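Board notes (copied after class):
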Amino acid sequence: MTDYLDVSVVQIQSWLTRTPQLQGRRGASTMISAATAPDVVDKLLVPHSDLVKRNDEVGDVDGVVALQLLTPEPDAAKQVKNAVVAHLRAKLPTASLVVRKTSGKNYADAQLQTSEPDDEHWPAAVADWPVGRPCEWCHVQPADPVQQDRERKRLCRECVMRREAAGWAKSGTRVPRQEKELLIRLAPPPGKKVPDEFKDLAALEEERSLALVYADGNAVGRFISDLHRVGNKRGRKLLQRVAKEIDEATWTALVKAVEAISDADDHLLPVVPHLVGGDDVLVSVPARRAWRFVMTLQSTFAERIAAQASGAGAQLPTLSAGVVFHHYARPLHVMCDLAKTLLRRAKESVQGNEAAIAWQDVTRDGQTPTDRDPVRLADLLAKQADLSRLAERGNSAQQRLAELIRVNGVESEPLQTHLQRLGLGEVVSPFRDGPIELLDALGMVRWWR
């Protein structure tokens, strides 16, 4: 049996998106990449080299320090834990941390054996609030009396660190790991970079709106359990590297999705990656390209996992997603909270058994979560051509149809008369009996491309 120790940043999406400025998010992403980079962790472990080593069974996932203990002595685990937590506290002052100790024949087995992990939580530090001004970026910590950004907004200690770590994508300095890895894998033409500002990303389409896409794996634990339970040669071999394979499937899917929405005349890449790793993806893309992005992301992830797990006898994991369409100036942390709610609803709608998408258009639906049913990826792919035909009718025609449905109902005489007069019966007929209702379809094709 081998003992493992993981020290992880939790609630990472909320922490990354705490500041409304993209510079603050990019700086936080750079900080977390730097704090948990393999070479940094290796250097941190030098004084404890007889007690622990870095766990290379886990992929390079930002926000996770994965370790393998070399001795079962409890004091050794405590000594290493304190060193790592102190390091992360210094580099990421207000991030929440969790420490988990597990044991097993390998890392995947250790995760299965720990059915009720005894996690040790280290909540984010809370300011003993002084009389004075709060930070004008995060509004969480007290502002430093001297430090300001370019707009003369007063910043707290951590937001100063974010600003200094941010750099600029176009200059290629201090690029967050997600952006750097994406550029390496995409190999775009020289000079084509990730946008530095949300307004630059939004300007790739006329509407100047974005979509925040938050995707996460379905039934990953069940997949690992199946590999362990079936126990054939193929499954045992895959089990030893399952964390890396899932991470690679996520990256492969992201690259294919970005390629699918990229136009030759784009002067920037049509994506800002906020968080990528393991089975998590949090990105911003132009609103009109979001549906193609999500469909490609989910389909490619499934195809990659299927290829790697062929013959292993395991039920395969998939990706579900929450998608929020919004104006580029909306606060990112608010959109992230909504996307998280939608993602949870998408997962629950299929009980983790297949890929699904829950979506909301904040520009029309508002920020309060609606009761719209999520859509299964299989249904979305099956209706793709029908949605494209509906999208060809133009925005004004779509709005008129939606208004008639909301006021009179989908089976009403005014709607039927309107459809007959304009000869739209065949265009809307695929949405009469589900699985995608006509009103939902009209909302979807507003951002169809």
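Comment from the instructor: The CA atoms of residues 41 and 65 lie 7 Å apart. The first strand starts at residue 2 and ends at 10.
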